[in-house]
Amino acid sequence: MRYNYGGILNSYTNKMKLIHSLEKFGDFGQYALPALVGSSALLSGNPIEAIAMGILGYVQKIEVFAIKRNFPRERPGPFIEGKVSREDSESFPSSHTGGAFLAVGLAGGLYGMTNPFSVTLIALACLVGASRYYSKKHWLSDILAGALIGIINGYLAANCVYILYPLKA
């Protein structure tokens, strides 16, 4: 009986390429999705929403950094593979996922969650979260916490925009 090891290796190689591509998308998506919401606001003539997105991005990074420092948690990669590095205790919460879902929260608060733009952002933000899980950077609870922080911050910012600058009917 003959085994086809080449097929197994090709399958493994393709899986690793997919995970690597997904990881790169996650690195890019954490900034691209908020930038997309800000750009959309600018193009539709709402500079206040764009400014809110920019400020909120920085505020959330500080927030997540403070949580990571005060609630250290080991990343799954080193836990599984036995490697240790400086950032290994900065797993909780996922700032990549938080950034992506920040865009979802703001867009949902401004345009509604059933708006096609918001639905597309939800799908892309979920891919960012999946990238963090499959690259062994975060536990599932880290990703869910990052998503929750992002959505809450986005909704709060959208409500602040509406309170400070109500829509003109």
Gist of the model:
This protein has 169 residues and is mainly α.
Question: How would the blueprint of this fold be written?
Answer:
Layout: H1 5-43, H2 47-70, H3 76-81, H4 95-111, H5 116-134, H6 140-164
Helix pairs in contact: 1-2, 1-4, 1-5, 2-4, 2-6, 4-5, 4-6, 5-6
Describe it for me?
This protein is mostly helical. Helix content is 77%, strand content 0%. The chain has one domain (30-164). The protein has 6 helices and no strands. Helix 1 packs across helix 4. The longest helix is centred in the N-terminal third of the chain and has 39 residues, at 5-43. The chain is globular and about 70 Å long. The mean pLDDT is 80.
Instruction: Tally the structural domains.
Output: 1
The tally of beta strands, per DSSP, is 0
Q: What structural class is derived from the secondary structure elements?
A: mainly alpha
Low-confidence stretches: none
The global form is: globular
- Count of helical segments? 6
Our estimate of the beta-strand percent is under 5%
Order of helices and strands: HHHHHH
The major pleated sheet works out as:
none
**What is the residue-averaged pLDDT?**
80
Residue share in helices?
Answer: over 70%
Distance between the termini: 76 Å
Entry keywords:
6 helices
